[in-house]
Every structure is written in C-alpha cells, then in structure tokens.
Automatic annotation (TrEMBL):
It is an enzyme of class 4 (lyase). This is Putative 4-hydroxy-4-methyl-2-oxoglutarate aldolase. The lineage of its organism: Bacteria, Bacillati, Bacillota, Negativicutes, Selenomonadales. Belongs to the class II aldolase/RraA-like family. CDD domains: RraA_family (cd16841).
Length: 204
C-alpha cells in the first residue's frame, strides 16, 4: 500500500495534529460534497485572477494520482473551472483538485463524483489569457505548497504534508488515530467517560 493510500485512510484531523495544525489550509476551503476524500502528491498551479488557461496546462502536466493545487490568491468572483474542466481532471486520472478560489457548474461537478475542494461556487467564467506557472512553490489557503508535497483532504478540510516529513507524519497520525479509537470506547460507559474528563480537568 502506497503512503498516499495509507494517508487516505486516516482522518485529516489526525494528520493535522501530527503537524501541530501548522499546515492546515484556510477552513473555508472545503469539499463540494462531504464524502469527498483526497490524498496524493501536489501538482501546483499559479494563476492570475480571472484567467484559467494555465489550469488546462496543469491538467496535462499532472500525473495520474496527482492532486492539482491551484493558487489564485483567494479570488472568488470568477470560477477557476466548471464541470468540463473537472470532468477532464477525472478522465486524466487525477486524485482531486484543490482551489484557493471558486468553481461553477457545481451540480455538474457533483455528478462527476470527482473530489473538488474550494472556497465555494459562483456564476462567472474566467478568461483564457495564459499568465501563470505550473509546478512551482505556491501559497494555497495560507499554506506554502511545493510540488510533490502530500495533500490530504476530507470533510474537515485540507492539510499539507511536506515531502520530507511524510514518514514521520504518517507514523504519528497512525498512533493518534489508534488513541482516538481507544478513547472513543470510553463513551460506552458513563463512569469511564466521567473519569476521563475529570483527569483532563485535573491536568489543566
């Protein structure tokens, strides 16, 4: 099982805790559907507002399994993509798209059942001028993303795992998930739950 598949099975909250919450994208970047989950290496795209031609370049340069991460400076009036471009991302085998901006044709995108994380949806289309770059360091949702960094997202949001911290982050996240599962069993008993809460109160 690849490291991306392993991360996909872990709640993004556990991964966030592993990185002390320092690499979480802005909380307004959420999946169009709560059931969407992503995990994969970043293919980064830097765009100007109201110009999505380089988004298409990113689609063809990205490798199957990549997550296309788009920095458009939180601009939201014009959509970075609609259902056709997102459908193309699915056909090309990408793992998902994360946009620090908006999309349109949201109903059509949901029908593709392809994971899209963004700040929301809008009506206006973008122009195609062609200013921008692919596979450079970017800032998306307030977090620096380098090509190849691991992008994990679920209903709670998106977290970035730097390439050089992937192994240690996975190890910590697995331990955190196991601890959370063990703690959840306390809820089966009121006395055990009360005892656990009291211990936390004593420590504070």
């Amino acid at each position: 099982m690849s490291i991306y598949e392993q991360f996909l099975k872990i709640p993004a909250t556990c991964i966030s805790d592993s990185l002390k919450g320092l690499t979480n994208m802005d909380f307004t970047i959420k999946p169009l559907k709560e059931t969407y989950k992503i995990s994969g290496p970043a293919c980064t795209v830097k765009l100007l507002a109201n110009d999505n031609l380089i988004f298409l370049k990113g689609l063809v340069l990205a490798k199957p399994g990549d997550v296309l991460v788009v920095d458009i400076g939180s601009y939201q009036y014009n959509a970075i993509a609609g259902d056709f471009m997102i459908g193309a991302a699915k056909v090309l085998g990408l793992a998902g798209v994360v946009v620090d901006g908006t999309v349109r044709d949201s109903a059509g995108i949901k029908e593709t059942d392809f994971p899209v994380f963004c700040r929301g949806n809008t009506l206006a289309a973008s122009n195609k001028v062609g200013i921008g770059e692919v596979n450079i360091p970017i800032c998306c949702g307030g977090v620096v993303v380098n090509p190849g960094d691991i992008i994990i997202g679920d209903a709670d949001g998106v977290v970035v795992v730097p390439q050089d911290r992937a192994t240690e982050t996975l190890k910590f996240a697995l331990k955190k998930e196991q601890a959370d599962r063990k703690r959840a069993k306390l809820l089966e008993s009121a006395n055990a739950t009360r005892e656990y809460i009291n211990k936390l109160l004593l420590k504070s």
